[in-house]
Amino acid sequence: MTETQQIPRAAVKPLVLDFESHGIGKRSDRKFITSLARGLEVLRAFQSQSGSMSNKEISALTNIPKPSITRLTYTLSEMGYLQQNKTDGKYELSAGILSLGYPLLSGLRIRHLAHDHMAELANSAGCTVALASRDRMSMVYVDESCGNSSTSLRLDIGARIEIARSSIGRAWLAGLAEDERQEMYLQLESAYIDEWPELKTRADDAMDQIKERGFCLVDGEWRKDTRTVSVPLVSEDGKTVMAINCGGPTFALSVETLENELGPRLRHIGEKISLFLGK
Question: Interhelix angle for 196-213 vs 167-175, to 10°?
């Protein structure tokens, strides 16, 4: 299925977890520290597209009261994770935040095992190949290889893309056990509301594609000028699920090339990488 129809984007929901509805941090859960959770939510709010933000903007995005945000941003600044612009008073991430993520990336063995395969495909096909893991309702890139410096499809490590609208997100869904997938569907339905029936149809279609040929295609939906194919990566015990994609701008990669050449090659790479996943 070639996905060219654009689904209008709904307003962005607050990033903060509704802790009680997720069974997390209930009043009876004395081990859960809400203030710590809120501080981490503030850091999550600073995604690549958000830029610097004021306390008011952070409050609106996270649904945390502004007085609490003021204390949290002050504390995070004192700890070196945020820095405040002296001109407009807005906050942005500081270099100190890298110390939190680097140990994970450096210790993620699958990145090192997958990278050479990713680079070979990217360089030979002039496309972008990325490896991603799930974080809430997004996929987060943990490695990326770009074979064409002029491509518009270039996302750095740490970039987030929607599970529901991307081929890599739908491939990840396909790798889940049925009960886990249905649980994720409930979360996505809560987030997308009226959009979800159409998005679910497309996610189900992606899973049919993967069952039939081992990869799924999304054409012009996540970004109208890009198309990608993706493959799920599942460990032998089924406990670890990631996904890998390959794609580029529509003017450079045809649907036929993705379906007949790059998709099968990506599937082959995925089969190799999956053998080492979770080990």
Answer: 70
Closest alpha carbon to 184 in 134, 221, 123? 134
Q: What is the CA radius of gyration of the chain?
A: 20
Task: Count the residues in the chain.
Answer: 279
Fold of 7-97: Arc Repressor Mutant, subunit A (1.10.10)
141 beta partners: 132
Each residue's pLDDT tens digit, 136-184 = 888 999 999 988 765 555 677 888 889 999 999 999 999 999 999 999 9
| Cα-based distances in Å from 53 to 108, 244, 269 | 31, 32, 40
Domains of the chain by residue range: 7-97, 108-274
Domains 7-97 and 108-274 share a fold: no
DSSP annotation string for 251-266: TT--HHHIIIIIHHHH
Would you say residue 11 has pLDDT above 50?
no
Class of domain 108-274: alpha beta
Most confident of 20-24, 72-76, 273-277: 72-76
26 against 141, higher pLDDT: 141
